[in-house]
């Protein structure tokens, strides 16, 4: 039994390393294309675009997001801010921002949706509502999250691939660069870094930076699919492919996110990202198995080293310990490979990064903590029957989502004040 587990552990670590090296190698080679990917200075593709920002609650980076959206070099766009309640704190921030800052060239619209349908997420409801309000002359919608710090070329680079008639949508990548070195922030950074190669390999879009042709929305009947969905992005590639359209990921479009998180927030966030794959992506089984394998390779080799040492089988204990250390050193190297590639792209975008100062133990500790969190999150996502998102609880049943009760964000703040354990993540 122990001998079998020994060889299974060695094989599992080897297979996981080979898979991760191939994924990361593909991702980094693709990133290098960014040097020749930016549109030329005489680039003239400029369809009328509606940028849709769905807000709920006071995001700490909302003002930075609004500033970036107001200063885009792309000329033919308008901003649509959508909220689910007129008294939402985010709308107060938006109105205050535009009241104190004058951007005469920016066309902006603020919407408060009236339909809080219970068979989809609030974000899907907000997107459907905003798109239905658009002028028929709008050719492209660009979706952005409030935690995105958009540089001036963000929209221009996002729109550029849509000039190709065979492309229905384009999406960017997110890079977490928290300003603190708390374990929650570091886990979120490391997990997201590891997720980027999988997103590229499995063609998973990111709704925080996503542009879709209006013609593609109509051809793929996306509003109907979104009308009963938890998220808008994870299903997108398969819907486009079914209609002979492509999802393109410009390698020069890495977007910085500077949010800090505690561990509970990071665990909830990772679980929710994985749940969207379970609900809306055909490759969920591969992501699930990868998460389980990561947990297995974190725990079982250490347990074997302890057991083999206790039973005085020192030779096998040393081999297992050496294999485990080698395995984790490769994982650290892969993270740095991804990190350096993304930071190289961000440097080209002139994005200022906050890199927390780490002691000599932190890099290894954050890797182990992330592996544990990932395994826990994938187990939670696989059997989740409810999920919280921005103070709303959703029930998951038979692959469908149902809002249990609509609550305006301001009421969730009051609930959290009376119950400190209530989460509005």
> What share of residues is helical?
40-55%
Average of per-residue pLDDT values = 89
Q: Using the CA coordinates, give the radius of gyration.
A: 22 Å
Structural class: alpha/beta
Oligomer: single chain
Description:
- It is a single chain.
- The protein is of the alpha/beta class.
- It is 51% helix and 14% strand.
- Helix 1 crosses helix 11, helix 6 (183-201) crosses helix 13 and helix 11 packs across helix 13 (362-383).
- Mean pLDDT is 89; it is low at 417-424.
Give a quick summary of the entry:
Helix content is 51%, strand content 14%. The chain has 425 residues and is of the alpha/beta class.
Search tags:
seven-stranded mixed β-sheet; 12 strands; 14 helices; disordered C terminus; 51% helix; alpha/beta; 425 residues
What is the fold's blueprint, element by element?
Elements: H1 2-31, E1 49-54, H2 62-70, E2 77-83, H3 89-100, E3 107-112, H4 122-132, E4 140-144, H5 154-159, E5 167-171, E6 173-176, H6 183-201, E7 209-213, H7 214-219, H8 222-226, H9 236-242, E8 246-248, E9 254-257, H10 263-280, H11 284-310, H12 314-348, H13 362-383, E10 386-389, E11 392-397, E12 400-403, H14 409-418
Parallel strand pairs: 1-2, 1-4, 2-3, 5-8, 6-9
Antiparallel strand pairs: 4-7, 5-7, 10-11, 11-12
Helix pairs in contact: 1-6, 1-11, 1-12, 6-10, 6-13, 10-11, 10-13, 11-12, 11-13, 12-13
């Amino acid at each position: 039994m122990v001998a079998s587990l020994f060889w299974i552990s060695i094989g599992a670590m080897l297979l996981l390393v080979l898979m991760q090296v191939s994924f990361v190698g593909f991702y980094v080679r693709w990133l290098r294309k960014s040097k020749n990917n930016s549109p030329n200075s005489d680039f003239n593709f400029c369809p009328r675009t509606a940028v849709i920002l769905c807000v709920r609650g006071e995001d700490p980076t909302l003002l930075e997001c609004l500033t970036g959206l107001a200063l885009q070099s792309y000329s033919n766009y308008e901003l649509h801010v959508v909220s689910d309640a007129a008294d939402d704190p985010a709308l107060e921030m938006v109105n205050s921002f535009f009241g104190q800052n004058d951007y005469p060239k920016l066309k902006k619209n603020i919407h408060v949706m009236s339909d809080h349908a219970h068979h989809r997420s609030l974000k899907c409801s907000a997107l459907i509502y905003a798109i239905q309000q658009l002028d028929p002359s709008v050719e492209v919608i660009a979706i952005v999250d409030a935690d995105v710090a958009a540089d001036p070329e963000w929209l221009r680079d996002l729109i550029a691939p849509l000039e190709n008639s065979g492309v229905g949508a384009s999406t960017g990548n997110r890079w977490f660069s928290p300003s603190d070195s708390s374990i929650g922030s570091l886990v979120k950074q490391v997990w997201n870094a590891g997720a980027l190669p999988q997103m590229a390999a499995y063609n998973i879009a990111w709704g925080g930076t996503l542009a879709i042709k209006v013609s593609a929305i109509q051809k793929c009947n996306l509003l109907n699919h979104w009308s009963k969905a938890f998220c808008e992005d994870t299903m997108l590639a398969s819907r486009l492919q079914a209609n002979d359209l492509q999802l393109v990921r410009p390698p020069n479009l890495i977007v910085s996110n500077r949010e800090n998180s505690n561990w509970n927030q990071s665990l909830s966030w990772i679980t929710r990202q994985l749940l969207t794959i379970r609900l809306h992506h055909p490759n969920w089984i591969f992501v699930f198995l990868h998460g389980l394998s990561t947990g297995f390779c974190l725990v079982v080799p250490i347990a074997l080293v302890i057991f083999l040492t206790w039973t005085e089988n020192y030779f096998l204990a040393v081999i297992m310990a050496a294999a485990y250390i080698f395995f984790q050193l490769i994982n650290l190297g892969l993270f740095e490979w991804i990190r350096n590639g993304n930071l190289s792209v961000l440097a080209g975008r002139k994005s200022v990064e906050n890199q927390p100062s780490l002691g000599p133990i932190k890099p290894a500790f954050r890797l182990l903590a992330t592996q544990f969190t990932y395994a826990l999150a994938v187990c939670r996502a696989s059997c989740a029957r409810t999920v919280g998102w921005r103070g709303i609880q959703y029930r998951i049943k038979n692959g469908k989502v149902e809002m249990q009760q609509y609550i305006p964000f301001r009421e969730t703040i009051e609930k959290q004040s009376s119950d400190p354990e209530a989460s509005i993540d």
